[in-house]
Design brief:
Layout lengths: L5 E2 L20 E3 L2 E3 L16 E2 L7 E8 L5 E10 L2 E4 L1 H4 L4 E3 L2 E4 L9 E10 L16 E5 L21 E6 L19 E7 L13 E6 L14 E6 L2 E11 L13 E5 L4 H10 L2
Antiparallel strand pairs: 1-10, 2-3, 4-13, 5-6, 5-8, 5-9, 6-7, 7-11, 9-10, 10-11, 12-13, 12-15, 13-14, 14-17, 15-16, 16-17
Length: 286
C-alpha cells in the first residue's frame, strides 16, 4: 500500500525496520542489507564525495537534520527553498521508515550548524505514488515540506521549465560524506557545503531509472558523486545567467553493479516533471 500523502508530525508513522535500499542520505547495516537512509555520525556535518567547498552563494540551499529510529545516530538530508514557506526534498527524507526529520530546517547557509534562517516543519506532503515498502528504490521520490512561517531573508529558486538536455552541464550541492566508505565509521564530514559540477547522462547509463521523470547524472571529474547525506539536495543548471532547479537527489545510478557512490552515476528526481504537482500542492495547502 502506498504511504499516506501527508504527515503533520515530525516522527515516523511506521517504525518497521524492513530493509529497503535508499541512497544519499546515510547508511546503517541491518544484517546483510545496507539501508541507505538519512543517518550520519552524531554531531557531524557532511559533504559530496570528490566535490569542493561551495564557491558561490546558494540562498535556496536547505539542510534537514535527521534522526534514526532506536538509535543515537544523527544525519542530514538536503532540500531547496522553492517558495517562501515551502521546501522540496526527496520523499524518502520525509517518510523514511528508519529515519525522520527532527523538526527544523536551516535555509541559505553554507554551514550545516550555523548561519542562514531556521524554520520549523509543520507539514510534510509526500507524492502519493511514492512507495518505499519493497526492496527496490521507490519512484516519484519527491516531497514538500511546509514551514511554520515564510522565509524573508533568502530568495527561493525557480524550478526550470524543462529538464536539462543530455550532455548539459549542471551542479549538485549537498552536505553528504566526502569519503565513500561502506560504514558510517569511515565517513568524513566537513562543516562546509560542497558542490560538484556534473552533466546529464543518457538514461541507459543508470540502472532502475524512470527516464521521463528522473535524471541520470555523472560527474565531470573521476570518482566523484553525491553520497550518504545528500538525499533531497538540489541539482541546478545555469539558465539565462541564473541558477534554476532541475533535480532532487534520489539514488545511486548503478548500486546493483557497484555499491560505492562515486563509482558511477547517480539518479535525481526531475523537478520540471513535477511542476504541476508542486504548484497544485502549494495552492491546496495555503
Amino acid at each position: 500500500m502506498p504511504p499516506s500523502a501527508q504527515h503533520n508530525s515530525t516522527a515516523p508513522d511506521n517504525l518497521s525496520h524492513r530493509p529497503v535500499r535508499k541512497l544519499l542520505a546515510g547508511a546503517i547495516t541491518l544484517g546483510a542489507a545496507t539501508v541507505l537512509c538519512t543517518t550520519g555520525l552524531s554531531g557531524s556535518a557532511a559533504a559530496i564525495v570528490g566535490g569542493q567547498d561551495s564557491t558561490g552563494k546558494y540562498p535556496f540551499m536547505v539542510s534537514i537534520p535527521m534522526a534514526v529510529v532506536g538509535s543515537e545516530l544523527k544525519g542530514v538530508c538536503g532540500g531547496a527553498l522553492i517558495a517562501p514557506q515551502w521546501v522540496v526534498t526527496a520523499a524518502h527524507c520525509a517518510q523514511e521508515k528508519l529515519s525522520y526529520p527532527t523538526g527544523t530546517v536551516r535555509i541559505g547557509s553554507d554551514r550545516r550548524h550555523s548561519g542562514g534562517t531556521v524554520r520549523t516543519i509543520v507539514a510534510k506532503v509526500v507524492h502519493p505514488h511514492y512507495d518505499n515498502t519493497g526492496d527496490k528504490r521507490g519512484f516519484d521520490d519527491i516531497a514538500l515540506l511546509r514551514l511554520d512561517r515564510p522565509v524573508v531573508r533568502q530568495q527561493p529558486i525557480r524550478i526550470a521549465d524543462r529538464a536539462p538536455q543530455v550532455g548539459a552541464v549542471t551542479r549538485i550541492l549537498g552536505f553528504g560524506t566526502t569519503v565513500d566508505a561502506p560504514e558510517p565509521e569511515g565517513w568524513k564530514f566537513p562543516e562546509r557545503l560542497q558542490q560538484l559540477d556534473t552533466r546529464r547522462a543518457p538514461a541507459a547509463q543508470c540502472l532502475d531509472i524512470n527516464e521521463g521523470r528522473e535524471l541520470c547524472t555523472v560527474s565531470l571529474i573521476p570518482k566523484a558523486m553525491g553520497c550518504a547525506g545528500d538525499s533531497g539536495g538540489p541539482q541546478i543548471q545555469r539558465i539565462g545567467g541564473r541558477w534554476q532547479l532541475v533535480g532532487a537527489t534520489s539514488g545511486d545510478g548503478d548500486r546493483a553493479a557497484n555499491p560505492r557512490c562515486a563509482g558511477g552515476p547517480g539518479i535525481w528526481t526531475s523537478l520540471p516533471a513535477y511542476k504541476h504537482w508542486i504548484a497544485k500542492t502549494v495552492a491546496t495547502h495555503r
